[in-house]
Design brief:
homodimer; mainly alpha; 9 helices; transcription cis-regulatory region binding (chains A, B); TetR family transcriptional regulator (chains A, B); HTH_TetR (chains A, B); transcription regulation (chains A, B); HTH-type_TetR-like_transc_reg (chains A, B)
């Protein structure tokens, strides 16, 4: 093993330790109040090393957002097995989502609260992840609608709106669940299924809710 | 009419003109890019007068958030008539919400996007409004559950979660609808009713969605 390789390995490991510490401090203190001193101390490294590896507080925060966004998206995707019935896929996806946000409250705070509160650049990082999740949910609903057969031509706009509603509801519930002691990930997922599934299910069966005075 | 009174009246009117201009510029340019010069010009007043009345860019933005939050909350409350069936109340409330956000896209951008992206102080202003709306929706769901009789003891935690889900879905849909040309307020409200009502309705009738393997 050459000198370059032995140097590289510790750097990758140390960077992850720095990111672990940074997510925790950013998530708990908030972006503004978080200090590079505390992050370095928490990671067990010197502050100059944090700057050497991650450049600046802004770049460190961006790296945190990217890592947490990729991990959350991967967790949701891993939770869903294509081929199962649509409500089962949705249930599995929601459980994976709420389990991840419950187990990583600091990561969720970075993504949902901190990243959106401290400037348009950070907010844009999260918007990219959100678009990917909305696209994933849209596809799930389209497949479910085709499966249901009765309304295979559910308009694209309606499906896009439903996916936006579902993702917005999930984001809101995850933040609420993390702030509500004793609320489990499974309970949060069940609440959203109760809220959403019968509605989506009826819609796909061609039984939309009808406004007073007709559609 | 004394001198004091004639002076006061124009000030109140001028302040509203400044706020109108500021909401438009903040909503369209974003908080950082918005300039006090452009806001003053758009309001048809001098820049020193804006500073005299509203003190600073930060205070002007806070005043915008407060005015828009109060107007949105009032619009939703005014749209709902107590005493009607629960689904009608929800439909009326959602239509009022989406009509307001569609007619005031700059105000909605200030509340949902700008205020949450530029610091914890502004975000806290919006959080207060959001809590009021969640409380309003929670009450609506509690009343509906009592009306339905079959499940009068729907747990408080479940109701609170449902209200969070509904508000999160509505926020997400309003932002999406404003970015989707041709999507009307009525369509957005109907999408959310389709998503939510049958689910809520089934739940209140004591027919929750059942997870695989039982509850």
């Amino acid at each position: 093993m050459g000198a370059v390789k032995t140097k590289r390995m510790p750097r990758a490991v140390r960077e992850q330790q720095m990111l672990d510490a940074a997510v925790q401090i950013f998530g708990q203190r908030g972006y503004m109040a978080a200090s590079m001193d505390e992050i370095a101390e928490h990671a067990g490294v010197s502050k100059p090393l944090v700057y050497l590896y991650l450049n600046s507080k802004e770049d460190l925060f961006t790296a945190c957002i990217r890592r947490e966004a990729a991990a959350l998206t991967a967790a949701v995707r891993a939770g869903v097995r294509p081929g199962l019935p649509a409500d089962r896929q949705l249930w599995d996806g929601l459980r994976a989502f709420f389990a991840y946000t419950a187990e990583h409250p600091d990561g969720w705070s970075v993504l949902h609260l901190q990243a959106r509160t401290h400037g348009e650049g950070f907010a844009a990082e999260v918007a990219t992840m959100r678009e990917e999740i909305v696209a994933f949910v849209t596809e799930l609903i389209v497949v479910a609608a085709r499966e249901a057969h009765r309304d295979p031509d559910l308009p694209r706009r309606e499906v896009a709106g439903l996916a936006e509603a579902l993702v917005g509801a999930a984001e809101s519930l995850a933040t609420w669940a993390n702030a509500s002691p004793g609320t489990t990930a499974r309970q949060a997922a069940a609440t959203l299924m109760n809220f959403a599934w019968a509605g989506l299910g009826d819609l796909m069966d061609g039984r939309p809710w009808t406004p007073p005075g007709g559609p």
